[in-house]
Amino acid sequence: MSKLVRKFKDESSSVYKLTDGDAGNIIQYVVSTRDTRDLMNYPEIVSVSFREKMRNGVTAALKGINHLEKLSGIDSKSVNVFHILRGALNFELVSALNKAFGFKWHSSSYISSQRVLKEGSFEISDDLYRKFVVPDNATLYSSDIVASGVSFDNSLKYLDAYMESKNYSIKNLVFITIGCREGARVLRKWDSVFRGKYPGYEKTIICYLEGCFALASSDTPIRNTMPETDLLRSRDLGALITPEFEYSQFEKAMIALEACVIYDGGKKGFEPLNHIREILSFWEKQRDYALNEDQTLWAEYNRRLPLEDYFADFKSLRPGDARLLEKRRSETWEGVSSAEYDKLYAGFRWLWDDSAIAIAQEEESLARVCSKKINYLRTLLGVF
Known about the structure:
Elements: E1 3-9, E2 13-19, E3 27-33, H1 34-41, H2 47-69, E4 79-85, H3 93-101, E5 107-112, E6 114-118, E7 121-125, E8 130-131, E9 138-146, H4 150-166, E10 170-180, H5 181-197, E11 203-215, E12 231-232, E13 240-241, H6 243-248, H7 265-270, H8 272-293, H9 297-304, E14 311-313, E15 318-319, H10 322-329, E16 333-334, H11 338-351, H12 354-360, H13 365-381
Parallel strand pairs: 1-16, 3-11, 4-5, 4-9, 9-10, 10-11
Antiparallel strand pairs: 1-2, 2-3, 5-8, 6-7, 11-12, 11-13, 14-15
Helix pairs in contact: 1-2, 2-3, 4-5, 8-13, 10-11
């Protein structure tokens, strides 16, 4: 069973080691920060504000991981930031490394890699741009939003060919992502290649921001999802999120109802109006679904963020308590204090008291929430 084991916590970040039987040689962390929680929970954060929050969150994540991996001790002249265009630009890794470790000599490389759906499977297009200046014996940092992993795999294939053509070696690879287990699957493959090809290769690290999310598929029992694209919060579908991220879901009911934890990062960072239109389209589909099929807010919320662990008996909605929640979640969260479970359960009850649960089970309860969100998004677009 996969588990998050807390290894470090301060005011800026919580760092968890993700343990499972399929990790191979790669090191997996899940890191929670205030800024990455905000940018995932509020998709209306776009453009410069989105990238600023991402940079702040990535900086905090790097500092947290550094307590465990001592990454700051690497000579920055051997460090290269490997950008997978255009989504990786949102992570602001060049600046984050400077702010986290004081690096000033690290170089940058760029590759374009865009996946497209063709005849039922993803292929690579728009991959003609290359600009590489990777040093020998390199420690590589990269970042991207990973769903299917096709673009990521294609980019590492080119990187490996480039290093081989120069007769250069790779020492470490650190990858920061908002994504699912496909990122680790791709890295396991290339970790094996790098260890076989580069005698001095040391380690591969993947850092998931806020959680290792579930990837929607054609079989996902949730309506209005994009298969092989949407990253979902649901534990029932295999997501493994941090306690901090779960607590943040209870700020507003709408947060957990979003189609994806991040949507299209490229659009969010560089096409903000198109990004808002994409969110609006989702909520309009959800409103129609709610009205046409009599779906309630309570049912849809529990599909996207199951709340069963918060009840002693979910079918009858008999209340649970923090200790029961702690007992159930101790199988997947290690190192979380009882006081934190008290806070988490209180956050749940703040949003979902008996009255709110009753209202959420009323007819048109989901449609009302959808309409509220639609009106807000139309205001942002100037469409009424």
